[in-house]
Amino acid sequence: MQNQTLTFLLAGGVGSRLHPLTSSRSKPSVPFGGKYRIIDFTLANCLHSGLRRILVLTQYKSHSLNKHLRDGWSIFNPELGEYITPVPAQMNSGEHWYQGTADAIFQNLNLLERSNAEYTLILSGDHIYRMDYAAMLSAHQEQGADVTIACMEVPVEEAKAFGVVVTNADLKIIAFEEKPGQPTPLPENPEKALVSMGLYVFSTKLLSRALVEDQHNDASSHDFGKDILPRLVQHHKVQAYKFGGARGRVTPDRYWRDVGTLDAYYQANMDLLKPFPPLNLYQRDWPIRTYQPQSPPARTINGNSGAESVFVNSILAGGVVISGGSVRHSILFQDIFIDENAIIEKSILFGGVHVGTGARLQNCIIDQNVSIPPGEQIGYDLVKDRNRFTVSEKGIVVVPKDFVFVS
């Protein structure tokens, strides 16, 4: 069934709530977990699900993402009809960029129709999770559905931020509520609601008709959740597919995170440091692929004065050197140098960061190629930090890429 499926991966989001991490890159290309990019999780799901025709729709500041796709994901054989192809916004229909999730697919309708695919899978490139899409495609076919929506249960209060689905006993969706003020709870559990994950399987012919009809609706915002799905629910068989079940090859850890804010992004990274991480990166038959630079192994050495390095419950990528410093409960990307008596706690450091002698960092995200001066302190005085950097609602200090400290 996978060879009858065309996959669209939406990766053009601005990611404004992740600023300044998205000041020079799109949200899907933001580094994550010490070695990955956010988009790697969705692409790895495609790879392990046997999907080999993938169009990545890019738009906002896409150079970093395009480079990552070229360097890390040029793994399929075009001569066999396999590809992961970035498709920039080209104004194929009208003189405007993508105006919504449905408009992004509509503007590439020629690619959809040319594919002759029986099924279309629509994914987002900015979530952290593992999922076997092949199992969802099989359920779509077995149930004779026109549309299948991946869904998960969340507390009713959190459901206000999602599209809420209401189903009958057979998981046929009978109502779709986009970000409702009063979400409809599950009949068997009034504290939970069933929400859309923004992940859809369409029968391709129906999708094409729905997109064309939507474009002729002047009142539409051209969004799947707001416009297309609520209409299709009324006249077509739209099924819910519950995320995290036993069906499929991937271990059902039921972990899914929208890392759309600085605090959500920070917490999802810190989740990887828990004694039993809720997201299993170590399932040997479901590795998360990425581009890995040719860095030497990470190591710890004593400082010039003989100070011993300390490394506690942290993730280190290749090329990290801890020279008499202390790293605790932190995530360090490639080619980082931690100098003598520096202290790093509960922080995320992107590639190429140098932390000077005696500097202290806590509750920080340091973007690429920043040199922290000796003795500098970040994360200890939030009033001072707010005058220099971005500070999240929960007090995470973000130092932007290439920031230069003025002495």
TrEMBL record:
Protein's UniProt name: Glucose-1-phosphate adenylyltransferase
InterPro entries: ADP-Glc_PPase, ADP_Glu_pyroP_CS, GlgC_bac, GlmU/GlgC-like_hexapep, NTP_transferase_dom, Nucleotide-diphossugar_trans, Trimer_LpxA-like_sf
GO MF terms, alphabetically ordered: ATP binding; glucose-1-phosphate adenylyltransferase activity
GO biological process: glycogen biosynthetic process
Self-association state and partner proteins as the record states: Homotetramer.
Family named by the database record: Belongs to the bacterial/plant glucose-1-phosphate adenylyltransferase family.
Coiled coil: none
Gene: glgC
Domain Nucleotidyl transferase, chain residue ranges per copy: 9-273
UniProt pathway: Glycan biosynthesis; glycogen biosynthesis
Positions bearing the site annotation: Could play a key role in the communication between the regulatory and the substrate sites: 59, 97
NCBIfam families: glgC, PRK00725.1, PRK00844.1
Recorded catalytic activity of this chain's protein: alpha-D-glucose 1-phosphate + ATP + H(+) = ADP-alpha-D-glucose + diphosphate
